[in-house]
Amino acid sequence: MKDSMTLADAFQNCKYPVVGHGKRNVRVLLESLEGTDGDTASDMYGKGDTIERFEAKMAAYLGKPEAVFFPSGTMAQQIALRIHCDETGKRKVAYHPLSHLELYEEDGLKALHRIETVLLADRDRLIRPEDVRDLEDDAACLLLELPQREIGGQLPPYAELEEISAYCRSRGIRLHLDGARLFEILPHYEKSAAEICALFDSAYVSFYKGLGGVAGAILAGEPALTERSKVWKRRHGGDLISLYPYVISSDYYFDKRIGKMAQYYEEAMALAEMYNGCADTIRTVPAVPASNMFHVHADVSKEALESILAGVAEETGVGLSAWVKALDDGGSGFEATIGDRYAAVPEDRLRSAFSLLGHKLKEGGYRA
Amino acid sequence: MKDSMTLADAFQNCKYPVVGHGKRNVRVLLESLEGTDGDTASDMYGKGDTIERFEAKMAAYLGKPEAVFFPSGTMAQQIALRIHCDETGKRKVAYHPLSHLELYEEDGLKALHRIETVLLADRDRLIRPEDVRDLEDDAACLLLELPQREIGGQLPPYAELEEISAYCRSRGIRLHLDGARLFEILPHYEKSAAEICALFDSAYVSFYKGLGGVAGAILAGEPALTERSKVWKRRHGGDLISLYPYVISSDYYFDKRIGKMAQYYEEAMALAEMYNGCADTIRTVPAVPASNMFHVHADVSKEALESILAGVAEETGVGLSAWVKALDDGGSGFEATIGDRYAAVPEDRLRSAFSLLGHKLKEGGYRA
């Protein structure tokens, strides 16, 4: 606990944090409201100009007929899967063992919707076309998360996505996109969001990951699905009298950062190269990032890596991560996500930081 | 449709709207943020100073050990009822036929939680102790809404509340308070919120009714219930990374208006007296309000009342209601809720408006 506090504090106080956009504080909301006229009417239970215009904008961007704003992706995705089940008359959906629904939602899909799940692929690799061909006829829907966050934001080759999509269509299996980080992968695929979403029956996107907004999500698809999703939004308690604090900020940060995804992606590749080049005992997963994020794995204990990263931050002013977690193999790791901060780190400082990181990893006599 | 637009427009453009606090626009949020330091950290999935301090403040105010902030009352109440069912091992809850859960939630309680409901009392009257004594042993929980909004905000005598509470305790039936308008009834009962909540096992309150905030709700109760409610909040998709836009505004409007509830109540009684004195064909339900709200029933058609109220607004500048709905008995009605606006209406204008209202109701030759 003490070491962890020390790393968190060292990151908090360092001059050059490398990851993220900035602190998650009230200024994020205030900045997004600066250009907003106080006379702008609130949305009322999902109706009104502000929310409907943003929904139409995102529907167009994602290339779907309709889009509905939700307070959270947890709510939007459970509802999408529920509707796919109801429409197909089946009660089973498939997704990756490290899906958000499996790890972070307290089994809401099962507890609230009584939907059974099939875990496809192994924990440490992506779902492949051959996994999908193993699906039985009772599967209503397959959820694909692009990129797969919990394994460092890996992405399948685009041709595999097309293959999975064609197979699912041929078998009447609905395909849902967990696009929590969809914006972030467009530079890698060199595709538009609409091109990717065209492979899916429904798509969810988030506004507080790569875009750095306050909170909020969009679910896009055919009108039959989006209309039903509004009924379920009401049932879940998400059809608030006023969602405009999230709508306005989501719209603002979409406009502010959607054009910066290629920059973040290139910066992530540059940063990953520095990790992979600094010592044999540290590497990135994937080796070459496919988005603005990747994971870092080190062959040293959690406590050792915390101490090393805190030392690097104190000695060079460069904060590489605010936290470290223990890995099952005895090593340790953390997630790196590139945002606005990276461009403000002087390159020589960054080089010094990695030189020191490599030195500390080697001198520690840690197992190679 | 045309007449309805005309009344809405007449209300929108009138100089002296009588009901409500003001327009629901972005200024409501901006005002609440004026005193907030941009450096204030966001809450993170229900943790952090801003949200925890407000929860503690509301727990103390409601006299319960713990309180949890929710995005909506729909979510908070379904979850409270679910937990009462799970803890008692029963699957049935009882409430009024015009409960919010029955009218406005698309049957979320049944669709998501598979809880059966028992409708107590008739649609046009309050639940009485004798209704509660009819409950069978399979009822986990009784929900009481104070005041009962859909019948004009009626309230039972306090002694009946105590009787119902004692009976439920003796029978192991949990008692949940739908306190969407709890703050508004304290002057009538001359009780503290904590005294009233002490009769209940759990209580929900809202921040955008009498308090006029943006959105948000609190669920208060014993730690076993509140801790479980956080798990269900996550399952519902309501455990957002950042709820601070609602937390900060709820806190602000609580402080701004909690001391004005007695004033609103007195103003509601004065306004109701004017309705009841102006013509035989119009009256309030209840005859004497028990809070800042009441309903108005008139023995004229919806269209006729819309036209009369639009005329009053245009001729006197006093807007009594923005809308009218048809009632089952062939007459029409609307809801009146007192907020900050009432005090800004000059008394002579109000008298002129009611004189004209009475005149128009009489001259119209409408059925008495």
UniProtKB/TrEMBL annotation, chains A, B:
Pfam families: Beta_elim_lyase (PF01212). GO terms for molecular function: L-allo-threonine aldolase activity. Keywords: Lyase, Pyridoxal phosphate. Residues 43-277 form the Aromatic amino acid beta-eliminating lyase/threonine aldolase domain. The keyword Lyase applies. InterPro entries: ArAA_b-elim_lyase/Thr_aldolase, PyrdxlP-dep_Trfase, PyrdxlP-dep_Trfase_major, PyrdxlP-dep_Trfase_small. GO terms for cellular component: cytosol. Its cofactor is pyridoxal 5'-phosphate. GO terms for biological process: glycine biosynthetic process; L-threonine catabolic process. Belongs to the threonine aldolase family. This is Beta-eliminating lyase-related protein. It comes from Cohnella rhizosphaerae. The lineage of its organism: Bacteria, Bacillati, Bacillota, Bacilli, Bacillales.
